[in-house]
């Protein structure tokens, strides 16, 4: 049939589509032999939403590569996250990772408990619930981070304080349309006067 690219329709019904269901992203944020709700949650928090999560406190034990007998991976993480020094940050990141537990360490779908409650009290379940939460409750945060990353990529440097007015304009672009965002960047003094 030739070597032309073709659009694949209907992948959302298979739990795919977008960066959240992309196998490479899911595999990159897993351990060597098991998933990591913590790594996946950190990726969602920091990369997609721009949240600043502090480094773990000194002396916090690392999780074993395999959950001990009688404990699921989720129970292991919940037990680890119950430490008072760690609980504040884990309440912010773990629910995102738990929602993505429907994918194994290399991104294949699997049966798992994907129900969780975000730090703001919103119940999410699985990829669809997380996607809905990000596009509705956290849309402004996502657009701000996306605008910051897109601008930084376009300029070949990190976004700076002087870029804030442009980032504000990008964030409020009608419907978050990427083509219009790119046009704003290309027309900006930052881009034209590099």
Structure overview:
With 194 residues, this protein is mainly α. 48% of the residues lie in helices and 3% in strands. The chain has nine helices and two strands, in the order H-H-H-H-E-E-H-H-H-H-H. The chain has a two-stranded antiparallel ribbon. Helix 3 (73-81) packs antiparallel against helix 4, helix 6 packs across helix 8 (178-187) and helix 7 runs antiparallel to helix 8 (178-187). The protein is globular. The mean pLDDT is 87.
Key structural traits:
single chain; 194 residues; mainly alpha; two-stranded antiparallel sheet; 9 helices; 3% strand; globular
What's the layout of helices and strands?
Blueprint: H1 23-28, H2 37-48, H3 73-81, H4 84-99, E1 115-117, E2 123-125, H5 126-136, H6 139-155, H7 164-171, H8 178-187, H9 189-192
Antiparallel strand pairs: 1-2
- The order of strands across the largest sheet is 1-2
Roughly what percent helix?
40-55%
Give helix and strand order, one letter per element, not per position. Answer: HHHHEEHHHHH
Low-confidence segments, given as residue ranges, are: none
Mean of residue pLDDT values: 87
Question: Largest beta sheet, briefly?
Answer: 2 strands, antiparallel
Based on DSSP secondary structure assignment, what is the total number of beta strands?
Answer: 2
Structural class: mainly alpha
Radius of gyration: 19 Å
Strand fraction band? under 5%
Total helix count?
9
Spatial shape: globular
Give the N-terminus to C-terminus distance in angstroms: 45 Å
